[in-house]
Amino acid sequence: MKILVLIKQVPETSNVRMDTSTGTIIREGVESIVNPLDLYAIETALRLKKTYGATVTAISMGPSAAEKCVKEAIAMGCDDGILLSSHEFAGSDTWATSMILSKACAKIGDFDLVLAGERATDGDTAQVGPEVASLLDIPLATYVSSILKVNNKEMIIERLVEKCYESLLVPFPCLVTVLKEIAVPRLPTLRGKQNARAAELQKWSINDLPGICSEEVGLAGSPTQVVKISTPKVARHGINIKIKDERDMEPAIEALVQFLKDKNLIPKRGQEI
Ligand code: FAD
Fold it and tell me: Cα of 123 to ligand 1 centre, how many Å?
């Protein structure tokens, strides 16, 4: 089997900060890690490799700093890694990102399975997996919780749908996005870390991807634009009651009771609860 795993570099914080003027994520000064949900995709690939025999290639699109994430995938046990990096790729939305990733998969060719995480913890759209499958014109299964059976032509998977699971037979080549339930990701071993340090990553720029031009990627190739970024405001419509001494207590209680009545939070005289 030939397995490709899509991994994204994300900021190591759940508190993602945005640049409100450009609508982009502020990545400076924030440590980057492999998208935690992509570790499940890596683990799934490594388990398939152990059971059925496979080569596993980790692929990431991002700045040169994303090399660290590809190396981490190798430290976990992936055979090799490819970093897709070019200044033309900067500012890509999900569609442009998927375009780049799909061209890389097509260039590798002859793969059986592409694995992706359920979603990235920063962008959080869960669009990239389905878009890559669509661009490659291959079957897609999302929210996969288990791989039940595999042969050289197809596999049977279980996916979470609302409150139940459904089993699907998916022919190869296909793309699968996985849930946390699928497997517990392993930690890199010392030998794995040594392998990663010695590994020569392939670095592909826009010129290495046939059939793609600069108008199709980056901000220019992104059909969606961030028009505004804002934080939801939590408005508390309360009243300010000041109590300086005991004499203020009675009117303060009355004011508070009236406020609660006005909000229908306590019954008015004669009103049923
Ligand atoms: P999801 O779709 O949630 O990811 C699902 C899975 O796809 C991941 O688990 C992973 O397996 C795979 N995957 C996702 N991204 C990658 C990747 N890069 N490499 C390998 N695998 C991957 N970001 C910027 O840095 N600059 C911008 O200017 C910018 N503009 C944007 C404008 C818009 C309108 C939008 C919606 C997003 C923008 N982004 C920008 C964010 C960027 O497009 C997304 O981070 C990226 O496209 C991936 O989308 P996502 O994070 O929602 O991934």
Answer: 5
